[in-house]
C-alpha cells in the first residue's frame, strides 16, 4: 500500500498519488465509519472521505509544529504500515507505505525536490494546473523505477558516457553551435545544451553568461528526460485499452472543483505535457533551477534525436533576483501564518517581517528597472497589501489582542505574489515563443550527429572502455 498526499494549511488536498490497495482500504474505512454507502465503494476515492479520515492527524501535526515546534517525523503502525511527514512552504507532505521509514523519507524528500523544481515557491500550482501535477506524478514514477534498477539513481549521481577525446570535442562543438544559435535567435543569453543517451550524460555546453548547472539540477534534468522517454513511448505505442490499464495503477481524487480545468482527462493532460511537433515528440516546460542557491526559472526543451538519444536545450527566462525575492516573500508569509502572537514570538516576527520587506523591495525594484508593465498593477496591489500587514503587526506588538484578520491579509498577499510569479517567472508563453527556434536547432544537431549516433547507443548499452593489454 503506497500513498503520497499533499495538504495545505486548510487541510485541503492539493496533490495525491496512491495505488489501488490504498484506494480499496480508504473506501473500506469510509463504509465502516458511515462516510460513504456500500454502493459507492469502488476503486476510486471520494476526496472528502480522504480529508475527513486524515483531518485529525493533519490538524495534530499542524498544532505540534506551530505551537510546540515539535512536529511528527514518522508514525509506525502495528500492521507494518509507516507514515513519514515533511513540510515545504507551509504545505504538509505525507508518505505512507509498508517500506521502512528511511526509504519513505528519502522518497518524500525527492518529491519535495521535484515540487521545488516544477513550482518554485508556489506549491498551490499543483492544484490549479492539472498538467503540472500530472508531470509530478510522471517524475515520481520514473524515480521509483530508476531507484529499483539503477545504482546511479540510488547514490544520486548521473553516469557519464565515456567516449574518446576527439568525439567528445566534436559533440561539444555541436552543442556550442546549438547554444549560440538559440542565443542569437532569441532574447535569452543564458543558454545550456546537453546530450543524454538513455539516462547517461554525454556532454554539456553553457554560454559564458550562464551560471554553471549544479549537480542536483543535472540529476533532475536526467530524471525529467527519462520520464519524457517512457511517457512518449507509452503515448506512441499504447492504444486506448492500454491507457485504461495505465489509469488503474494510480488514482487521484479531484481537487476543489472551482480550480479544476474543464478538460482534464488522462489523454488530454498527457498531450498537453508532451507535444508532437512535426512528427517529433518534444517536451516544453518551465522549471526552477535552484542547486546553486539561486532561484532561476528556465525554459526546458527536450527533443528526440534518435531512439534513447535526447537533446536538452535550456535558457533562463526570468530574473533570478526577482524569483529569489518572490521566494523570500512567500516563505516569510508562511512563517507569519504559522507563528502565534505572544511575548516570546516578537523577535521571530520582527526578523520575518524584515526578510519579507526585503523580498518585496527586490520585486518592486526589478519590475521597475526592467519596465515590466504587464505586472505593474499586481505590484501596486502587493505593496498596498504589504503596507497594511506591516502596519497591523506594528499595532499587534503594542496590543496582542488586535491580531484578528491577519491570516486573511497574509493569504491575500500570497495571491498577489502568486500572480506576479506566474506572469514573470513561470509564464508558459516564455516557453512557446522559443519552440520554432528549438525545432530548427534540433534538426541541425541531428544532422551533425547522424554519423555517430548509432555508436553512442551501442556504447550506452555497456559503458566500457578499450585499452591495450597489459594495462
From TrEMBL:
Q: Which GO terms describe its biological process?
A: vesicle-mediated transport
Q: Which region ranges are annotated with the description Disordered?
A: 237-264
Domain FUZ/MON1/HPS1 second Longin: residue ranges: 190-319
Annotated FUZ/MON1/HPS1 first Longin domain residues: 3-146
GO cellular component annotations, sorted alphabetically? BLOC-3 complex
| Domain of life of the source | Eukaryota
Q: Which Pfam families does its entry note?
A: Fuz_longin_1, Fuz_longin_2
GO molecular function terms noted in the UniProt entry: guanyl-nucleotide exchange factor activity
The protein depicted here goes by the name FUZ/MON1/HPS1 first Longin domain-containing protein
Organism of origin is Clastoptera arizonana (Arizona spittle bug)
